[in-house]
Amino acid sequence: MGSLGILTSLYVTQYLGIGFITVGLTAILRDGGTSLDTLALLQVVGLIWPIKFLWAPLLDRYGSRHRGHYRSWLLVLQAALVLTLLALLPFSRPADQLGPVIGVCAAFVFFSATQDIAADAVAVRLLAASERGTGNGIQVAASYLGNLLGGGACVLVYDRFGWAAAIGLLAALTAVGLLVVWQFREPERIDRVVRIGTAYRALVSVFGQPGCRWWTFGVVPLVYVGAGMAYALVTPALVDAGWSLGRIGVVTGVVTSVPAIAAGLVAGLGVGRFGRAGVLVAGGVALALSTVALLPLMNGRAPLAGTVAALCSFLAAYTIANVVLYTVNMDYSRPGSGGTDFTVLSSFGLVCSFVAASIGLAAAERFGYPAVALASLVLVAAGVAVGVTHQRRFPPSGPAIRAAHPRADLLAG
């Protein structure tokens, strides 16, 4: 199996359980009478994901030479994902045993976040600059596919065949990734970090590379906050427009995932052909147009066909922009500290997304949905403009960004 096939299996199986926890299990618990306040506790376990940079240096520092540095981590973590899912089997009435269920879910999110560190590090090592767009397109598309399967298909299985069948299917699909890792032969890691302190310094030294601070603290916040503000308005606007919770769940959790998966894969291929700046512009234009298409919803009018089309367009456009952001993050990830570098850069984007949701909702309370949507459009446009300028000054093939070579120094810049 080639590099892209390996990464596809890792990313898809990583998100299967996440999709089930955030979408499927939430629906099952709500159906069992769990209150919305209690369901909010389940969402809190997702906060483990953006703080994974705290232990990412451990994966870069420690690993087995015999079994492969990151492969040795993946073998343990992929098995842990399967076993954690199987640990849910006894809780056939999850609403009646919420404490243990949330505990198991928190463990799964921890293992999944840690597996993501190792998978990203493998991607940094295996993918050439020309392949990073495709690799990150697969990664972003995998998140939506995991949501579709874990949050959609498994709920359908639960509804027809019960809890054990749904959890068994989830565990079996996740086990595919374990088989792939077992057959994977990771290239020998030549560089070696001597001290753990050196590995942790990579959390800061990554920003010393030319243009990295400009990208991370300029482009990323503008795009993520802009798009995140607009998307945070969608669910409350749909509720205010009179949509049922069931329709909202199906449309936002399942229907919109299909074009997002396609957009991620197409954007990944487009990065290799048209460049990072070209695809970023395409994503920005699409975001602007789809945000305008959402204005009727923001004004309280939400006809089914038009609203679904606007939401599908918006999520597809956001996916395109996200692929570019992830690709440039990988450009700045050094082979000797790939897990740490990519994790800390991506975690900052996640923090921006969380902040964006809060800002968007608070601003909408004061100024209304349409004003916030238009402000988000301005922020995204500014982010695209700054991003294009950045790429002209710091192209991935230029001297400012190191090529993915196993002898690259750990502490570049």
TrEMBL record:
Membrane-spanning segments: 7-28, 40-58, 70-89, 164-182, 214-234, 246-271, 278-298, 304-328, 340-361, 367-388
Keyword annotations from UniProtKB, A to Z: Membrane, Transmembrane, Transmembrane helix, Transport
Membrane topology: Multi-pass membrane protein
Broad class of where this protein is predominantly found: membrane
Record localization: Cell membrane
Protein name (database record): Major Facilitator Superfamily protein
Keyword Transport found: yes
Signal peptide: none
GO CC terms, sorted: plasma membrane
Lineage: Bacteria, Bacillati, Actinomycetota, Actinomycetes, Micromonosporales
Organism the protein comes from: Micromonospora marina
Single GO MF annotation: transmembrane transporter activity
Protein's UniProt keywords contain Transcription: no
All residue ranges annotated as the Major facilitator superfamily (MFS) profile domain in the record: 1-189
